[in-house]
Amino acid sequence: MWRRIILLLAISGAYGLNGQCRVLAVAGGTERGAYEAGAISALLTNLPAGQAEYDVVTGVGIGAINAMIVASYPQGQEAQAAAKLQSFWNSFTTSTLYSDWIGGLVTGLLYESGLFDTSAMKKTIKSLAPSTKFQRWLGVGCTDLLSGGYVFFNSTGVTLANMLTGIYASASDPVIFPLVKYSSYQLVSGATKFSIDILDAVNACFQLGYQENQIIIHSVLGAGRNLSTVDAMNYKTLQVTMRFFEIFAYDSFLRVLENAKHDFPQVNMQYSIFPTHGLNHTLYPYDFTPAELAQEWQLGQADALRLIQTTLATE
Ligand SMILES: *[C@@H]1O[C@H](CO)[C@@H](O)[C@H](O)[C@H]1NC(C)=O
Ligand SMILES: *[C@@H]1O[C@H](CO)[C@@H](O)[C@H](O)[C@H]1NC(C)=O
Ligand SMILES: *[C@@H]1O[C@H](CO)[C@@H](O)[C@H](O)[C@H]1NC(C)=O
Predict the structure, then answer these.
(1) How many domains does the chain fold into?
(2) CA pair distance 58, 66, nearest whole angstrom
(3) How far is the CA of 282 from the centre of ligand 3 (A)?
(4) Which domain CATH number covers 117?
(5) Nearest CA residue ID for atom 11, ligand 2
(6) 13-22, 55-64, 213-222, 259-268: which has the minimum mean pLDDT?
(7) Do the domain assignments include residue 110?
(8) Any signal peptide, and if so, which residues (predicted)?
(9) Among 127, 145, 173, 218, which has the minimal tally of Cβ within 10 Å of its Cβ?
(10) Closest ligand relative to 150 C-alpha
């Protein structure tokens, strides 16, 4: 009994047991990092006081990078986290994540485990990392190619260096990007298993000492409920691959949300934000123009703001 109370106190000292476990779950499986970041920044800067002081942040795919930015700032520094998201996506180019192999796509196809060289992504993740530890509970999901299993890294369970490896692996979309070796695993993005991780976020809240009815979840994802139709006739292999991930992410998102509602009926799934309009596709992964990135960011902000306003109006 006392041990349990002391444990809970110790945990609450670290993360603040404020009566509610606030979760931000960021999805992967698409290239819509800037859209997600726009939506997250709108949540961080427009929700009523305290409602965006997330205790638990999970990310998959490109969502793992957005999640790590949020989790690098302590509760109370939501505006700073939003500013960092904006500066990151403002200066984003493909070279933030990858470059061509010497020998180009042929090298990627024949001699490497992915079509592009992601040493740049590894450096980017390192440069975004907090100096000593994450300031909020962070979890990221990967897929192990050897077992097919889902491998989840969380910031209370592994070292900062291993978390960075987990984020790197989580953002490594298979085929396009090479696999990441970790321990006995060969990891790629978790988005091929679950495009958004609600289950581990709920488990994290339980581990932090909260009850099911104290959990509030905000989900942000890059594919809408209505998948926009595209003219795929002229698609090249890379575009087909990215389109496949998008379709998969969309299906998996619906499944995960429905399962979560079924498994945890008392959890409040307060906001689920996804693109309400079609956005431009690219020939090469993440190869958006500054105008396209700005458009994604703005749609993310607008979609989140509309939801916040209608929710507040009906409360
Ligand atoms: C976090 O990691 C630790 C150590 O691996 C593990 O015991 C714990 O269950 C994990 N928590 C979640 C929610 O995955
Ligand atoms: C999705 O598409 C259906 C049928 O085309 C339409 O009735 C519905 O309003 C759309 N939902 C959203 C959120 O756009
Ligand atoms: C989206 O793509 C179309 C067609 O290539 C282009 O005309 C338009 O300017 C793009 N949108 C933005 C915001 O750049």
Answers:
(1) 1
(2) 10
(3) 10
(4) 3.40.1090.10
(5) 226
(6) 13-22
(7) yes
(8) 1-16
(9) 127
(10) 1
Average pLDDT over every residue of 266-282 = 92
Checking if the pLDDT of 6 tops 60, the result is: no
Best of 35, 292, 298 for a ligand 3 pocket test (most atoms within 8 Å of beta carbon): 292
Burial class from Cβ neighbours inside 10 Å (0-12, 13-18, 19+) for residue 309 reads: exposed
**Distance of CA 207 from the midpoint of ligand 1 (Å):** 8
Q: What is the mean pLDDT of residues 20-49?
A: 96
161 domain residue, yes or no: yes
pLDDT tens digits, 112-134:
889 999 999 999 999 999 999 99
Q: How confident is the model at residue 227 (pLDDT cuts 50, 70, 90)?
A: low
206 in a structural domain: yes
In a domain, 273, yes or no: yes
